[in-house]
Amino acid sequence: MTKYIYQYPSWPSFIWNDKDIQVILGKVRYLQGKLLGQMSSLGFSIKEQTHLSNLTLDVLKSSEIEGEKLNEDQVRSSIARRLGMEYAGMIPSGRDVEGVVEMMLDATQKCKLPLDEDRLFGWHAALFPTGRSGMYKIVTGRYRDGEMQVVSGPLGKEKVHYQAPSPETVKEEMDRFLGWFNGETKMDPVIKVAIAHFWFIIIHPFDDGNGRIARALSDMLLSRSDEAPHRYYSMSSQILIDRKRYYEILQRSQHSDGEITEWLDWFLNCLYRALEASQELIHNVLHKSMFWDNHNETDFNARQRLMLNKLLDGIDGKLKSSKWAKMAKCSADTALRDIKDLIEKGIIEQEESGGRSTNYKLVDF
User: pTM for the complete prediction?
Assistant: First the structure.
Protein backbone atom coordinates (compact mmCIF):
# COMPACT_ATOMS: atom_id res chain seq x y z
CA MET A 1 0.00 0.00 0.00
CA THR A 2 1.30 3.45 -0.97
CA LYS A 3 2.39 5.61 1.95
CA TYR A 4 1.16 9.12 2.58
CA ILE A 5 3.71 11.89 3.09
CA TYR A 6 3.04 12.12 6.85
CA GLN A 7 3.82 8.38 7.27
CA TYR A 8 7.48 8.79 6.26
CA PRO A 9 10.07 9.15 9.08
CA SER A 10 11.27 12.44 7.53
CA TRP A 11 7.84 14.14 8.01
CA PRO A 12 7.47 17.12 8.15
CA SER A 13 10.80 17.88 6.44
CA PHE A 14 10.21 19.21 2.93
CA ILE A 15 12.80 19.14 0.17
CA TRP A 16 12.81 20.65 -3.32
CA ASN A 17 15.11 21.45 -6.22
CA ASP A 18 16.02 25.14 -6.00
CA LYS A 19 17.16 25.27 -9.63
CA ASP A 20 13.74 24.12 -10.88
CA ILE A 21 11.88 26.95 -9.17
CA GLN A 22 14.49 29.73 -9.25
CA VAL A 23 13.26 31.35 -12.49
CA ILE A 24 9.55 31.43 -11.60
CA LEU A 25 10.31 32.60 -8.04
CA GLY A 26 12.32 35.49 -9.49
CA LYS A 27 9.42 36.41 -11.81
CA VAL A 28 6.94 36.35 -8.93
CA ARG A 29 9.13 38.56 -6.73
CA TYR A 30 9.65 41.02 -9.61
CA LEU A 31 5.90 41.29 -10.33
CA GLN A 32 5.11 41.68 -6.61
CA GLY A 33 7.52 44.60 -6.38
CA LYS A 34 6.23 46.15 -9.61
CA LEU A 35 2.60 45.91 -8.47
CA LEU A 36 3.27 47.40 -5.04
CA GLY A 37 5.25 50.20 -6.72
CA GLN A 38 2.32 50.92 -9.05
CA MET A 39 -0.15 51.01 -6.17
CA SER A 40 2.02 53.33 -4.06
CA SER A 41 1.78 55.99 -6.79
CA LEU A 42 -2.04 55.90 -6.87
CA GLY A 43 -4.43 57.86 -4.66
CA PHE A 44 -6.03 56.55 -1.47
CA SER A 45 -9.46 56.05 -3.08
CA ILE A 46 -8.05 53.93 -5.93
CA LYS A 47 -6.10 51.77 -3.46
CA GLU A 48 -9.22 51.24 -1.35
CA GLN A 49 -11.35 50.31 -4.38
CA THR A 50 -8.70 47.90 -5.68
CA HIS A 51 -8.43 46.35 -2.21
CA LEU A 52 -12.23 45.99 -2.00
CA SER A 53 -12.46 44.44 -5.49
CA ASN A 54 -9.68 41.93 -4.82
CA LEU A 55 -10.99 40.87 -1.42
CA THR A 56 -14.46 40.43 -2.93
CA LEU A 57 -12.97 38.29 -5.70
CA ASP A 58 -10.93 36.24 -3.22
CA VAL A 59 -13.91 35.46 -0.98
CA LEU A 60 -16.16 34.57 -3.94
CA LYS A 61 -13.62 32.37 -5.70
CA SER A 62 -12.35 30.59 -2.57
CA SER A 63 -15.94 29.52 -1.81
CA GLU A 64 -16.56 28.62 -5.46
CA ILE A 65 -13.61 26.19 -5.41
CA GLU A 66 -15.62 24.26 -2.81
CA GLY A 67 -18.75 24.41 -4.99
CA GLU A 68 -20.42 27.18 -2.97
CA LYS A 69 -21.63 30.28 -4.83
CA LEU A 70 -22.00 33.39 -2.69
CA ASN A 71 -23.88 36.55 -3.65
CA GLU A 72 -21.34 39.07 -5.02
CA ASP A 73 -23.25 42.16 -3.87
CA GLN A 74 -23.58 40.76 -0.35
CA VAL A 75 -19.85 39.93 -0.19
CA ARG A 76 -18.82 43.37 -1.48
CA SER A 77 -21.21 45.12 0.92
CA SER A 78 -20.02 43.08 3.91
CA ILE A 79 -16.35 43.84 3.19
CA ALA A 80 -17.05 47.53 2.53
CA ARG A 81 -18.93 47.88 5.83
CA ARG A 82 -16.11 46.25 7.78
CA LEU A 83 -13.53 48.46 6.07
CA GLY A 84 -15.60 51.57 6.81
CA MET A 85 -16.27 52.23 3.12
CA GLU A 86 -19.53 53.28 1.50
CA TYR A 87 -20.83 52.92 -2.04
CA ALA A 88 -24.20 52.97 -3.80
CA GLY A 89 -26.25 49.81 -3.52
CA MET A 90 -24.91 48.38 -0.24
CA ILE A 91 -27.15 45.56 0.97
CA PRO A 92 -27.39 43.33 4.07
CA SER A 93 -25.65 39.95 3.92
CA GLY A 94 -26.36 36.53 5.41
CA ARG A 95 -24.38 34.67 8.07
CA ASP A 96 -22.66 32.47 5.47
CA VAL A 97 -21.21 35.58 3.81
CA GLU A 98 -20.37 37.37 7.06
CA GLY A 99 -18.43 34.37 8.37
CA VAL A 100 -16.11 33.95 5.39
CA VAL A 101 -15.59 37.73 5.12
CA GLU A 102 -14.76 37.90 8.82
CA MET A 103 -12.13 35.17 8.40
CA MET A 104 -10.54 36.74 5.33
CA LEU A 105 -10.33 40.21 6.87
CA ASP A 106 -8.89 38.87 10.11
CA ALA A 107 -6.24 36.96 8.12
CA THR A 108 -5.19 39.94 5.98
CA GLN A 109 -5.85 43.05 8.09
CA LYS A 110 -4.19 41.45 11.13
CA CYS A 111 -1.59 39.48 9.20
CA LYS A 112 1.23 40.33 11.63
CA LEU A 113 -0.53 38.90 14.69
CA PRO A 114 0.48 35.32 15.64
CA LEU A 115 -1.71 32.46 14.48
CA ASP A 116 -2.88 30.25 17.34
CA GLU A 117 -5.53 27.63 18.02
CA ASP A 118 -8.12 30.11 19.31
CA ARG A 119 -7.81 32.23 16.20
CA LEU A 120 -8.15 29.22 13.90
CA PHE A 121 -11.11 27.94 15.90
CA GLY A 122 -12.75 31.37 15.57
CA TRP A 123 -12.33 31.25 11.80
CA HIS A 124 -13.78 27.77 11.62
CA ALA A 125 -16.79 28.65 13.78
CA ALA A 126 -17.38 31.76 11.62
CA LEU A 127 -17.39 29.61 8.46
CA PHE A 128 -20.09 27.30 9.87
CA PRO A 129 -22.35 29.48 12.07
CA THR A 130 -25.13 26.86 12.14
CA GLY A 131 -22.80 24.00 13.10
CA ARG A 132 -23.67 22.31 9.84
CA SER A 133 -22.02 21.80 6.46
CA GLY A 134 -25.00 21.55 4.12
CA MET A 135 -27.30 18.97 5.68
CA TYR A 136 -24.64 17.42 7.89
CA LYS A 137 -23.84 18.35 11.48
CA ILE A 138 -20.09 18.89 11.97
CA VAL A 139 -17.69 19.66 14.81
CA THR A 140 -17.07 23.42 14.70
CA GLY A 141 -14.60 25.67 16.48
CA ARG A 142 -12.26 22.78 17.37
CA TYR A 143 -10.18 20.12 15.68
CA ARG A 144 -11.96 17.10 14.25
CA ASP A 145 -12.41 14.07 16.48
CA GLY A 146 -13.06 11.56 13.69
CA GLU A 147 -11.21 10.04 10.75
CA MET A 148 -11.02 12.18 7.63
CA GLN A 149 -11.09 10.86 4.08
CA VAL A 150 -11.38 12.75 0.81
CA VAL A 151 -13.62 10.55 -1.36
CA SER A 152 -15.59 10.69 -4.60
CA GLY A 153 -18.05 8.43 -6.37
CA PRO A 154 -21.51 6.98 -5.56
CA LEU A 155 -22.37 5.41 -2.21
CA GLY A 156 -20.87 1.94 -1.93
CA LYS A 157 -18.42 2.61 -4.78
CA GLU A 158 -16.46 5.46 -3.23
CA LYS A 159 -12.90 6.11 -4.32
CA VAL A 160 -10.59 7.27 -1.51
CA HIS A 161 -8.31 10.06 -2.74
CA TYR A 162 -6.75 10.85 0.60
CA GLN A 163 -6.69 9.61 4.19
CA ALA A 164 -5.68 12.38 6.62
CA PRO A 165 -3.67 11.79 9.82
CA SER A 166 -5.66 10.14 12.62
CA PRO A 167 -7.63 12.46 14.94
CA GLU A 168 -5.43 11.48 17.91
CA THR A 169 -2.42 13.10 16.22
CA VAL A 170 -4.09 16.29 14.91
CA LYS A 171 -3.36 18.40 18.00
CA GLU A 172 0.33 17.44 17.97
CA GLU A 173 0.55 17.99 14.20
CA MET A 174 -1.07 21.42 14.45
CA ASP A 175 1.13 22.52 17.37
CA ARG A 176 4.17 21.74 15.23
CA PHE A 177 2.65 23.52 12.20
CA LEU A 178 1.73 26.65 14.21
CA GLY A 179 5.21 26.79 15.76
CA TRP A 180 6.72 26.80 12.27
CA PHE A 181 4.11 29.20 10.86
CA ASN A 182 4.79 31.82 13.55
CA GLY A 183 8.54 31.27 13.71
CA GLU A 184 11.32 32.93 11.76
CA THR A 185 12.62 30.94 8.78
CA LYS A 186 15.47 31.56 6.36
CA MET A 187 13.39 30.51 3.34
CA ASP A 188 11.89 33.03 0.91
CA PRO A 189 8.51 34.29 2.27
CA VAL A 190 6.71 33.19 -0.91
CA ILE A 191 8.06 29.63 -0.58
CA LYS A 192 6.75 29.67 2.99
CA VAL A 193 3.28 30.57 1.63
CA ALA A 194 3.30 27.52 -0.67
CA ILE A 195 4.53 25.14 2.05
CA ALA A 196 2.02 26.43 4.63
CA HIS A 197 -0.86 25.86 2.21
CA PHE A 198 0.29 22.31 1.42
CA TRP A 199 1.14 21.37 5.03
CA PHE A 200 -2.22 22.54 6.37
CA ILE A 201 -4.11 20.62 3.65
CA ILE A 202 -2.15 17.46 4.54
CA ILE A 203 -3.12 17.69 8.24
CA HIS A 204 -6.77 18.45 7.33
CA PRO A 205 -7.47 19.40 10.96
CA PHE A 206 -11.18 20.23 10.64
CA ASP A 207 -14.34 18.36 9.67
CA ASP A 208 -14.86 20.81 6.78
CA GLY A 209 -13.55 24.15 5.52
CA ASN A 210 -9.90 23.05 5.32
CA GLY A 211 -9.46 24.37 1.76
CA ARG A 212 -10.91 27.79 2.55
CA ILE A 213 -8.80 28.13 5.70
CA ALA A 214 -5.65 27.03 3.79
CA ARG A 215 -6.30 29.78 1.23
CA ALA A 216 -6.87 32.32 4.02
CA LEU A 217 -3.50 31.29 5.48
CA SER A 218 -1.94 31.83 2.04
CA ASP A 219 -3.41 35.35 1.93
CA MET A 220 -2.19 36.00 5.46
CA LEU A 221 1.41 35.05 4.59
CA LEU A 222 1.23 36.91 1.25
CA SER A 223 0.18 40.03 3.17
CA ARG A 224 3.21 39.54 5.41
CA SER A 225 5.44 39.02 2.37
CA ASP A 226 4.04 42.20 0.72
CA GLU A 227 4.39 43.98 4.10
CA ALA A 228 0.88 45.37 3.54
CA PRO A 229 -2.60 44.27 4.69
CA HIS A 230 -4.12 45.47 1.39
CA ARG A 231 -4.75 42.77 -1.21
CA TYR A 232 -4.11 43.81 -4.79
CA TYR A 233 -4.24 40.34 -6.38
CA SER A 234 -6.36 37.22 -5.87
CA MET A 235 -4.68 33.81 -5.54
CA SER A 236 -8.04 32.01 -5.14
CA SER A 237 -9.24 33.25 -8.56
CA GLN A 238 -6.31 31.56 -10.26
CA ILE A 239 -6.65 28.36 -8.21
CA LEU A 240 -10.28 28.17 -9.36
CA ILE A 241 -9.23 28.54 -13.01
CA ASP A 242 -6.68 25.72 -12.62
CA ARG A 243 -8.66 23.72 -10.06
CA LYS A 244 -8.23 20.37 -11.84
CA ARG A 245 -4.41 20.66 -11.77
CA TYR A 246 -4.56 21.96 -8.18
CA TYR A 247 -6.18 18.72 -7.02
CA GLU A 248 -4.04 16.52 -9.28
CA ILE A 249 -0.77 17.93 -7.94
CA LEU A 250 -1.99 17.87 -4.34
CA GLN A 251 -2.88 14.20 -4.82
CA ARG A 252 0.50 13.32 -6.31
CA SER A 253 2.48 15.31 -3.75
CA GLN A 254 0.63 13.78 -0.78
CA HIS A 255 2.29 10.44 -1.61
CA SER A 256 5.84 11.84 -1.83
CA ASP A 257 8.52 11.33 0.80
CA GLY A 258 8.71 15.11 1.35
CA GLU A 259 9.86 16.09 -2.18
CA ILE A 260 7.53 18.95 -3.19
CA THR A 261 9.23 20.59 -6.20
CA GLU A 262 6.21 19.94 -8.44
CA TRP A 263 3.84 21.52 -5.90
CA LEU A 264 6.07 24.59 -5.45
CA ASP A 265 6.41 25.03 -9.21
CA TRP A 266 2.63 24.86 -9.72
CA PHE A 267 1.90 27.18 -6.79
CA LEU A 268 4.43 29.82 -7.90
CA ASN A 269 3.15 29.76 -11.49
CA CYS A 270 -0.40 30.17 -10.17
CA LEU A 271 0.72 33.13 -8.05
CA TYR A 272 2.48 34.65 -11.08
CA ARG A 273 -0.77 34.46 -13.10
CA ALA A 274 -2.66 36.06 -10.20
CA LEU A 275 -0.22 38.98 -10.20
CA GLU A 276 -0.58 39.34 -13.99
CA ALA A 277 -4.39 39.28 -13.75
CA SER A 278 -4.31 42.09 -11.16
CA GLN A 279 -3.23 44.51 -13.90
CA GLU A 280 -6.64 44.20 -15.58
CA LEU A 281 -8.45 44.71 -12.29
CA ILE A 282 -6.43 47.86 -11.52
CA HIS A 283 -7.23 49.15 -15.03
CA ASN A 284 -10.95 48.60 -14.36
CA VAL A 285 -10.78 50.42 -11.02
CA LEU A 286 -8.97 53.36 -12.65
CA HIS A 287 -11.55 53.41 -15.46
CA LYS A 288 -14.40 53.48 -12.93
CA SER A 289 -12.73 56.23 -10.89
CA MET A 290 -12.19 58.34 -14.03
CA PHE A 291 -15.86 57.95 -14.95
CA TRP A 292 -17.07 59.28 -11.60
CA ASP A 293 -14.49 62.10 -11.69
CA ASN A 294 -15.83 63.11 -15.11
CA HIS A 295 -19.41 63.05 -13.79
CA ASN A 296 -18.75 64.59 -10.41
CA GLU A 297 -21.41 67.23 -10.98
CA THR A 298 -23.85 65.20 -13.11
CA ASP A 299 -27.24 64.69 -11.49
CA PHE A 300 -28.08 60.97 -11.01
CA ASN A 301 -30.76 59.31 -8.92
CA ALA A 302 -29.91 56.39 -6.61
CA ARG A 303 -31.06 53.77 -9.16
CA GLN A 304 -28.89 55.25 -11.88
CA ARG A 305 -25.84 55.35 -9.61
CA LEU A 306 -26.43 51.71 -8.65
CA MET A 307 -26.77 50.56 -12.26
CA LEU A 308 -23.85 52.64 -13.55
CA ASN A 309 -21.62 51.05 -10.91
CA LYS A 310 -22.82 47.62 -12.00
CA LEU A 311 -22.12 48.44 -15.66
CA LEU A 312 -18.65 49.73 -14.78
CA ASP A 313 -17.95 46.55 -12.80
CA GLY A 314 -19.25 44.44 -15.69
CA ILE A 315 -22.61 42.69 -15.64
CA ASP A 316 -23.43 39.25 -17.04
CA GLY A 317 -25.21 39.33 -20.38
CA LYS A 318 -26.87 42.22 -22.16
CA LEU A 319 -28.47 45.18 -20.40
CA LYS A 320 -32.16 45.45 -21.25
CA SER A 321 -34.77 47.66 -19.61
CA SER A 322 -36.29 44.52 -17.99
CA LYS A 323 -32.91 43.66 -16.42
CA TRP A 324 -32.57 47.26 -15.21
CA ALA A 325 -36.03 47.07 -13.58
CA LYS A 326 -35.17 43.78 -11.86
CA MET A 327 -31.72 44.84 -10.61
CA ALA A 328 -32.79 48.35 -9.55
CA LYS A 329 -36.04 46.97 -8.04
CA CYS A 330 -38.32 49.38 -9.92
CA SER A 331 -41.13 49.25 -12.49
CA ALA A 332 -40.49 48.81 -16.22
CA ASP A 333 -41.67 52.38 -16.89
CA THR A 334 -39.29 53.80 -14.26
CA ALA A 335 -36.42 51.76 -15.70
CA LEU A 336 -37.11 53.12 -19.18
CA ARG A 337 -37.22 56.71 -17.88
CA ASP A 338 -33.87 56.20 -16.11
CA ILE A 339 -32.34 54.80 -19.30
CA LYS A 340 -33.71 57.57 -21.56
CA ASP A 341 -32.36 60.20 -19.18
CA LEU A 342 -28.86 58.65 -19.34
CA ILE A 343 -29.06 58.45 -23.15
CA GLU A 344 -29.91 62.19 -23.27
CA LYS A 345 -26.90 62.87 -21.02
CA GLY A 346 -24.69 60.91 -23.44
CA ILE A 347 -23.73 58.28 -20.86
CA ILE A 348 -25.34 55.15 -22.28
CA GLU A 349 -26.43 54.29 -25.80
CA GLN A 350 -28.48 51.74 -27.64
CA GLU A 351 -26.48 48.82 -29.03
CA GLU A 352 -26.57 48.27 -32.77
CA SER A 353 -28.12 44.84 -32.55
CA GLY A 354 -31.07 43.74 -34.62
CA GLY A 355 -33.94 41.73 -33.28
CA ARG A 356 -36.92 42.57 -31.15
CA SER A 357 -35.13 43.37 -27.88
CA THR A 358 -33.21 46.59 -27.26
CA ASN A 359 -29.86 46.42 -25.48
CA TYR A 360 -27.93 49.27 -23.93
CA LYS A 361 -24.25 49.87 -23.15
CA LEU A 362 -21.99 52.54 -21.68
CA VAL A 363 -20.69 55.12 -24.13
CA ASP A 364 -16.90 54.89 -24.45
CA PHE A 365 -15.16 57.79 -22.73
Answer: 0.81
